[in-house]
Amino acid sequence: MGYYIAPRFLDKLAVHITKNFLKLPGVRVPLILGIHGRKGEGKSFQCELVFEKMGIEVTHISGGELESPDAGDPARLIRLRYRETAELIKVRGKMCVLMINDLDAGAGRFDEGTQYTVNTQLVNATLMNIADNPTDVQLPGSYDSTPLNRVPIIVTGNDFSTLYAPLIRDGRMEKFYWEPDRDDKVGIVAGIFEPDGLSQRQVEQLVDTFANQSIDFFSALRSRIYDEQIRNFIHQIGFERVSLRVVNSTEGPPEFKKPDFSLSHLIESGHLMVGEQKRVENSQLVDEYNRLNRGRSYQAAPPPAVTPTSQPSTNGATTNGFPNKESSSPHLSLETQAQIREILAQGYKISIEHVDERRFRTGSWQSCVNSHIDAESDAISNLESSLAEYSGEYIRLVAIDPKAKRRVLETIIQRPNGKN
């Protein structure tokens, strides 16, 4: 199978890695290259293809390894892997790199409720220290004065705005936003379906049909085409014998004939996958779960009707379940104001976030407020200010459970056209 390497991707990695192995007079070269972009666009896989093409050996660290019940372990792991890679350069006499996948998942802070642990602090500090002193990386409790070989570090992630700002400054990390254009997608998808006989025109039509889908969608689509044959195989031998036939059989692995990779069949299967995506997005099962467990809905309640039996009183009574001292706003809809009251009445706190149209595609929301809001008047005034300040952006209201430290509601109340 011939895989496609995007020229922009190849150039960026090749230049960064090579530059770190050269001694350029008077030039400070960033040690870390941060490759970020939306999920499923093949950042890690493109890296692997570049490493293979250039004959580079890689030492891997997963974002999941950057947390541990023992304080200091992840930071020590980074230093250990860095030193091991430096030794590989010395022994093998070739380029080697250290690669950290999904750095933002292991060391990022996605909102005020994300726990910031000692290990998170140490990981950030360790990477900063290595970037500043790449030839003097020591293990805790020991010191070796022998300078190390400089090891380029490649990190991937979806949203680097969640990382510690001093770590991603330009002197330490060079950033590369990876968003494949149509030509890149066509090239990559043609490589995925190369054994299946799709013409260039058919690949282009397939990519254009699912233009908003990421690269991994097309890889999953190819895998799905085999489902029908595997289903027939299971029914043919019986569910009870599948394990013995596949895992521990003297007959050898089962063989399948080439499935139907016609364009119409691919498009039909693709639409089924898109339908499943939309069901996940629209299910809102967390709302149903919370309604069952709390007896309340997170949907905006209608504004309370003022009747003779629900007039404000002077002794602190409530009106339709809400306190008398309600704030109101001529700039917010009654539904939004009622939703704010409903959230606060359930003991939750409110946060307000904004994002422009470009970052909306990657989900890179930013907070409009410094802390969570627990007063209705503050929520309304902050929301009005945010709507005025970010009139050309998306604005969303977030409800946060302070006890469970998790979000229970995210709802967009303004889109870039300025309407709310």
TrEMBL record:
<dbReference type="InterPro" id="IPR003959">
    <property type="entry name" value="ATPase_AAA_core"/>
</dbReference>
<keyword id="KW-0547">Nucleotide-binding</keyword>
<dbReference type="InterPro" id="IPR000894">
    <property type="entry name" value="RuBisCO_ssu_dom"/>
</dbReference>
<feature type="compositionally biased region" description="Polar residues">
    <location>
        <begin position="307"/>
        <end position="333"/>
    </location>
</feature>
<dbReference type="InterPro" id="IPR048571">
    <property type="entry name" value="RuBisCO_activase_AAA_helical"/>
</dbReference>
<feature type="region of interest" description="Disordered">
    <location>
        <begin position="294"/>
        <end position="333"/>
    </location>
</feature>
<feature type="domain" description="Ribulose bisphosphate carboxylase small subunit">
    <location>
        <begin position="324"/>
        <end position="416"/>
    </location>
</feature>
<keyword id="KW-0067">ATP-binding</keyword>
<dbReference type="Pfam" id="PF21228">
    <property type="entry name" value="RuBisCO_activase_AAA_helical"/>
</dbReference>
<dbReference type="Pfam" id="PF00101">
    <property type="entry name" value="RuBisCO_small"/>
</dbReference>
<protein>
    <submittedName>
        <fullName>Ribulose bisphosphate carboxylase small subunit</fullName>
    </submittedName>
</protein>
<dbReference type="Pfam" id="PF00004">
    <property type="entry name" value="AAA"/>
</dbReference>
<dbReference type="InterPro" id="IPR044960">
    <property type="entry name" value="RCA-like"/>
</dbReference>
<dbReference type="InterPro" id="IPR036385">
    <property type="entry name" value="RuBisCO_ssu_sf"/>
</dbReference>
<dbReference type="InterPro" id="IPR027417">
    <property type="entry name" value="P-loop_NTPase"/>
</dbReference>
<comment type="similarity">
    <text>Belongs to the RuBisCO activase family.</text>
</comment>
